[in-house]
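Table S7 (text form). Paired inputs.
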Amino acid sequence: MSVDAMVLDGPFDGLIHQQLLGREVGSRDASLWLHHMTRVLTVPPHYHEREETVVVLQGQLSIAVGQSVDQLTEGEDPMVGGTTVEVGPDATIQIPSRTVHGYVISGLPARVLIFLPEPDAITLFPDG
């Protein structure tokens, strides 16, 4: 059992990625991330191999959910025909596996918990 979390600079300026669960910190079954956002920023369209559960703890997000990468044709915009929702604290969003999604952080500061049922969860982009 591990009680230490890995704290990393996020992939975007203004985002701190903290890994609470995952193979690197002793989990064999799941990943749990805590994201702290300190500036307005856009997380571009991406997906994960397994479903994702997002819990907004603080702040305001505009989350866009697009198509499954399994239904895309080359060159197609994965967000066409998608849905966008505005969410705030206490909102929980479940995103199906392999579904392209992104979000804009608009209410600051923002804190989001992200759960993925795999210990080696990674972020993938539809264009490779």
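Next pair, protein 2 of 2.
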Amino acid sequence: MCKNTVRLNAVMDMIIKFREVQAINRQINKSTKGVHGVSIMVRDEFNGDFAYYDFRVGDNSNDLIYYNIFDFILEKKTEEIKVYDTVSDSSISLKDWRKKRR
């Protein structure tokens, strides 16, 4: 197993434990009667920028479409997890994102 795979799996383990992701997971699980839960897709670029890993958190319980709910990004140099805010087209810290969601 390569070093990046171990690092990416560790980040996915962290993201899946975020309270916001857990809440979505419970909703998906309930609506699918326990058949599906939240899914995470990882890409090695974000909007053409290779300085980030993109963790797309969503719902793939529909066979025809994937519903993206959150975009978390991992800065490769700093190892900081941030959230991509589609409204402002920018990344923000988890702390600021959580404040904004209240």
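The two ends are 39 Å apart (CA to CA).
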